[in-house]
Amino acid sequence: MTKSIFITGATGFVGSHLYENLLKEGFNTLGLARSEKKWQSFNLPGAPVLGDLSDSSLKDWVNNLPEDLTHFVHTAGVVHSFETQVFEKTNTQATITLFELLKERFPRLHFIFISSLAAAGPASSHPLKEEDPPRPVSAYGRSKLKAEEYISAHLAPEMKLTIIRPPMVIGPRDPAVLDVFKMVKGRVILNTGLKGPQKTYSIVCIFDLVTLITNVIKKSEELEKITSYYPSFPRHYTFAEIINSMEKGLNVKTVGLPIPFPVVKALASLLNAAYKVKKHDMRLTPDKINELAPMAWTCDGAKSLQELDMVYDYDLDRTVEITIEDYQKRGWL
Predict the structure, then answer these.
(1) I need a labelling partner for 64 at 20 to 30 A (CA). Which of 79, 178, 260, 271 fits?
(2) What is the pTM assigned to this prediction?
(3) Residue pLDDT, tens place only, 53-71
(4) What gap in Å lies between CA 114 and CA 75, rounded to an integer?
(5) CB burial class (10 A; 0-12, 13-18, 19+) of residue 240?
(6) Rounded to the nearest 5 degrees, what angle is found at the Cα of 75, between the Cα atoms of 71 and 77?
(7) CATH of the structural domain 4-169+204-234+299-313, one choice from 3.40.50.720, 3.40.50.300, 1.20.1250.20, 1.10.3720.10
């Protein structure tokens, strides 16, 4: 059976890389973009489906999707905002509306939801596995989890759902981790809390994440009705190790400056107050403070190795190297 795939967020970090990879693999692939200009800025081949996740736009473009659609990959969403209601509106309600429209038109669709490790919450005694109960600590994480739960409970009889919860994603074109690279280039590292360097993270390179999503599509017929995966390089890294890898890649030495956690919270509150006066796009929001506090954001990718034949080719150093190369070509660093 020929696979026909649609991607939301095709001009985002994950979506753009996925779109390129699926075309390279020979799949019939379409992507959603807000504008032709945004599409062209990514130099993506083909023409986009124009639209967004607003109620006024959803019905129009969903009703115009090709009849032979077999897979739908939902990567679009809001990751950070000073207005926490935006998470509920976009990540939960818009996703539910989208899903219901798709279910009506494509009752045999395989819906692939790119969620987040934030939906599961931080790790405690061990890296999180798929069977561990979710305990999100942020409004962002809760908004993703609510969408996961709704879709899981409302699948049509012949639909399939795969939930993918990436941890920290690093790679070319990523604007989010760019802030950390810039901090390293500036040679002063602001550590969140006195134990900041000891905090532990799972990572996944964008290219490995895209391979995993592609493998889900390739193995679609073999998968259970509802599946979930943590894409994660097998080794976990401390924040100090991540900074050290970036230091090597940029050939600099940094000085760590520990910031007591109450000071970080106060700064987030000040930025929040400033946002109410004049909107800005700083990433240190009160909601993100809840994600900065835990000591471990780690997950176990073993299930993806067993069921999806995953091989994680990009360790931290290799991922940092290709990311720096891309940033420098773009003039971002």
Answers:
(1) 79
(2) 0.95
(3) 999 999 999 999 999 999 9
(4) 5
(5) middle
(6) 140
(7) 3.40.50.720
